[in-house]
């Protein structure tokens, strides 16, 4: 018997969840609106999707989508198996058949894809991360603690020499990683080539002097994959080793194209992802979404963090982190989870405790480093101290008694003052 | 003064819409969570987004997203102008800055992008449709009426020779256009190369005999743009002139890559789009979405139709149609709107009347043609008759008195029996 691709859907409907589950299976494989002579049983057996189970959940009094129908709105978790032969390993085919089309079906008051299990053929067909955790650690030389990163802000408007001045400050502050804001790609006032020319020498100089090469993630994303490859090549030529990729904006195809040719660490920013997940009754879980992007080759995955400035609740960050920790295929590298947004070190203990007490992550602080009252250098020290405390299980306040920088961070950023 | 890119957002919040609008403008341009010394006024003026207007709308008693906050939920339409220099013409930059990131902002109980106005620089930077309405008409030889198309069903499972047998039937039925179901790309049981080999000779034979070349839209979509181009090339080499593209599944980059090299009409299937639009308080309007894909080069755009089998209401189809009719940039071709799903001719009068009485569309019928009791030939005739009646303003029932095939269609498909 051949393999199957299994998807789990959270179905909400004033109608019968079983009926809707059967409709997904039918519509997304052999089904059509009028029975056709050629639709033989043999054919159906070959490619027809099959409802594996429909597990009832408590109903909802209100619908997730506005509807004219009356409640209660029945909810269930439906598991549907698609024969591997119906889809193959092409990720856009998988997205089209098992996810995309499902959302057009009539009769739902809510529909969300919450899990996906892929057969091993996908591991052969797709490369996965080229660097992942292991490569990120090798390139930064950071072992035994989180890789500490920062972001150059303001997001937009700095000219290359202005950005360079800020970068100089943070690399001298002994940060491990710096990134362009994801909104900064190659606008007229700061073309990527100019930015690379202004900044890369600072990184190489610092490496010469200290032996430490700061990883800089360049905003190489571009709609045209040829342009993106030119951007990639100029970064590589200048000695760069990382790039920020706006994965949703460029799409699967461009990511596949880049990964086949890439020599750099691919740091994914998932802006736009919130549209797919912000309403809990619609869209998909990160658990599903991340599988596509890991197969395509994301090395470092931004997933927000604890107490972020965005809408995303802490639980959502924690479950995203756990999804990334889960091996997808054994022969693939594990991606590096990146915690960021409003981070200053204060969230280190909770981040550590809720993610299985791991230090295999990047911890990205913007204001939490550069707005430290002692300067960026003190900011980096404070973040490292916060992680030492977290790993040792010492409360931050206690650790701060003998660690001035952390004490200053707490005085500046704690208790809702925020980074 | 340089150009601006203007976006309109439907904001819903228990807080102040003005405050949230200001937050979008700040977060998505120069804003950061801690004021930085380098963030000068000069810089802000160069790239800062600006709230143009906030127009209050009636509040909502219930939130679009579940929230712990109490209502009422204030609603407003906010117009925000982004300096062209902050973004440039890159579509993934535009998506990242003006759309993607907005959905991560805290404090909304609903957020939807409802309009977008782009400056002329985008017309220079992007090619738009290569064929559009004009090219589609030239290649099919159809003038003065809708291009009549059909879809090979079942969606999945037919082997190439089985698909070919169905295609033979519909091309002999005098249909103008045939397409692979969008879920059929290149699975093991029906590799694209085999399908082309089995079907293309039938189309070329028919052309030899009748002078009429049926346009066949091949499922060339693939995640890897190199694979997609190989698919494209084998279609072109065999004499094909059209392809179905799963635009959301492949993404902007792959579409840009294809359009630069394409010699065929690009027929867009937007599966997955419903995730972005099904909840009226979240996501974006087609009016916004279609601008990206038109710039990237979609020639024919599937947008459902009147009384479809999917969730999408008729009003949504009508407004999508109108969005496509609206010239985007004068120097670009107009794309061909494609009405489909459950169509059999019965929807022709309403389609015609509600879309500005135009015949510049493709009218795509599956069962409405192939399940006609008189066979596919009678099905095509019936659909053409329905459109003649619509254009002449004659009720279908009257026109059917002297048009047997239409009369049979009405008897088979009308009054909720459905195509």
CATH superfamily of the largest domain in chain A: Ribulose bisphosphate carboxylase, large subunit, C-terminal domain
The end-to-end distance of chain A, rounded to whole angstroms, is: 55 Å
Instruction: Quickly give the CATH architecture of the largest domain in chain A.
Output: Alpha-Beta Barrel
Compute the number of helices of chain A: 18
Task: Give the C-level CATH assignment of the largest domain in chain A.
Answer: Alpha Beta
Count of separate structural domains of chain A: 2
Instruction: Please identify the structural class of chain A as seen in this structure.
Output: alpha/beta
Mean pLDDT of chain A: 94
Note the beta-strand portion of chain A.
Answer: 15-25%
List keywords for this structure.
homodimer; 419 residues; alpha/beta; Alpha-Beta Plaits; TIM Barrel; 2 domains; 5-stranded mixed beta sheet; 18 helices; 13 strands; globular
Give structural notes.
- 2 copies of one chain form a homodimer.
- Chain A has 18 helices and 13 strands.
- Chain A is of the alpha/beta class.
- The first copy, chain A, has 2 domains: 4-125, 2-Layer Sandwich (Alpha-Beta Plaits), CATH 3.30.70; 132-413, TIM Barrel.
- In chain A, the strands form 2 sheets. An 8-stranded parallel barrel of chain A has the order 5-6-7-8-9-11-12-13, surrounded by 6 helices. In chain A, strands 2-3-1-4-10 form a 5-stranded mixed β-sheet.
- In chain A, helix 10 (247-261) links the parallel strand 8 (242-246) and strand 9 (265-269).
- Chain A starts with a strand and ends in a 6-residue tail after the last helix.
- At the A-B interface, helix 2, helix 3, helix 4, helix 7 and helix 9 of A face helix 2, helix 3, helix 4, helix 7 and helix 9 of B.
């Amino acid at each position: 018997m051949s393999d199957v691709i299994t998807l789990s859907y959270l179905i909400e409907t004033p109608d019968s969840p079983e009926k809707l589950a059967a409709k997904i299976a039918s519509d997304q494989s052999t089904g059509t609106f009028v029975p056709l002579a050629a639709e033989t049983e043999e054919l159906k057996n070959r490619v027809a999707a099959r409802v594996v189970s429909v597990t009832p959940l408590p109903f909802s009094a209100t619908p997730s989508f506005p509807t004219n129908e009356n409640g209660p709105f029945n909810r269930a978790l439906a598991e549907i198996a698609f024969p591997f032969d119906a889809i193959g390993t092409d990720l856009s085919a998988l997205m089209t058949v098992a996810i995309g089309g499902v959302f057009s079906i009539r009769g739902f008051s809510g529909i969300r894809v919450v899990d996906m299990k892929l057969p091993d053929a996908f591991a052969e067909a797709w490369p996965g991360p080229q660097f992942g955790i292991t490569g990120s650690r090798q390139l930064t030389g950071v072992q035994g603690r989180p890789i500490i990163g920062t972001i150059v802000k303001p997001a937009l408007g700095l000219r290359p020499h202005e950005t360079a001045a800020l970068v100089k400050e943070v690399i001298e502050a002994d940060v491990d990683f710096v990134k362009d804001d994801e909104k900064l790609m190659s606008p007229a006032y700061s073309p990527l080539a100019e930015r690379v020319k202004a900044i890369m020498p600072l990184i190489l100089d610092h490496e010469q002097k200290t032996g430490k090469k700061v990883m800089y993630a360049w905003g190489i994303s571009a709609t045209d994959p040829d342009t993106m490859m030119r951007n990639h090549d100029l970064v590589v030529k200048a000695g760069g080793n990382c790039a920020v990729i706006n994965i949703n904006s460029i799409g699967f195809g461009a990511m596949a194209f880049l990964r086949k040719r890439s020599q750099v660490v691919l740091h994914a920013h998932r802006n736009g992802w919130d549209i797919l997940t912000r309403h809990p009754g619609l869209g998909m879980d990160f658990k599903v979404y991340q599988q596509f992007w890991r197969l395509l080759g994301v090395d470092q995955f931004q997933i927000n963090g604890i107490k972020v400035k965005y809408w995303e609740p802490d639980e959502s960050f924690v479950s995203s982190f756990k999804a990334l920790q889960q091996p997808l295929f054994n022969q693939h590298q594990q991606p590096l989870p990146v915690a960021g947004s409003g981070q200053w070190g204060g969230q280190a203990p909770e981040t550590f405790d809720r993610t299985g007490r791991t230090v295999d992550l990047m911890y990205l602080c913007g204001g939490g480093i550069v707005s430290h009252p002692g300067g960026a250098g003190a900011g980096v020290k404070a973040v490292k101290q916060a992680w030492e405390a977290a790993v040792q299980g010492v409360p931050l306040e206690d650790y701060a008694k003998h660690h001035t920088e952390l004490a200053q961070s707490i005085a500046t950023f704690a208790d809702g003052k925020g980074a």
